[in-house]
């Protein structure tokens, strides 16, 4: 049975689902455009699964009035996350995050390291603060351009085609952009998250120190055919934090939540073994 809860601090609200009441706790964060429901497959008799809806998803709220001039800060998310731990009386837990959720997880890690039993990322965002995707979100001209696409998504579709033809954009990224652009709700959501989360910048030195000091089992699972977040980004990140052997590739693209994909990585999760 799933239980739903809402927590809030000031004008920020997070929704999360709770599955089960076992002693072993796993906290999960989904990817962009995905849902907290993605992690229902983890439900087990001895396990309590807490799955958080990130802002602009589900009933989690980040005020539109703040997006441009006062975007989300890591410290705010840490405070909300700590409130969940207090609300659910959690002292130790495993953390699992996919894609965009990975950026949140990496920002959190140095603040919650002593409570972590393991830390697992699946095709995570946030491994490179200087990528064009992340860098451009911190440029006002780029945010203005993205905002303009909300009312005229065909411009973004045309731009992605031009970028692809000039070999500035990979085919799967082009397809990813066009998928979101074809739906008004999805492009508004994509614009909002990209602009809201631009100051969530993982600190590699702090991450490395936290993992090594607390001896946290650390794993990154990548799809070898993923063209949205490529394996080579994970290997570079692993080298940067001094944990070169933490990456595992599976025969998959970026969609990890098909039934056929779940069977490929479920057994790799440290709390399943």
Under the CATH scheme, the architecture of the largest domain is: 3-Layer(aba) Sandwich
Number of helices: 10
Model regions low in confidence, pLDDT < 50 over at least 5 residues: none
Strand order of the largest sheet: 1-2-4-3-5-6-7-8
Number of strands: 8
What count of structural domains?
2
Report, as a whole number of angstroms, the end-to-end distance: 24 Å
Q: From the alpha-carbon coordinates, what is the Rg to the nearest angstrom?
A: 18 Å
CATH superfamily of the largest domain: Alpha/Beta hydrolase fold, catalytic domain
User: What would you call the structural class?
Assistant: alpha/beta
Beta-strand content bin = 15-25%
Shape: globular
CATH fold node name of the largest domain = Rossmann fold
Mean pLDDT: 93
Task: Describe this protein's structure.
- There is one protein chain.
- An 8-stranded mixed sheet has the order 1-2-4-3-5-6-7-8, with helices on one face.
- The chain folds into 2 domains: 2-130 and 199-268, Alpha/Beta hydrolase fold, catalytic domain (Rossmann fold); 139-195, no CATH class.
- The protein is α/β, with parallel strands linked by helices.
- It is built from 10 helices and 8 strands.
- α2 (100-112) links the parallel β5 (93-98) and β6.
- It is globular, with a radius of gyration of 18 Å.
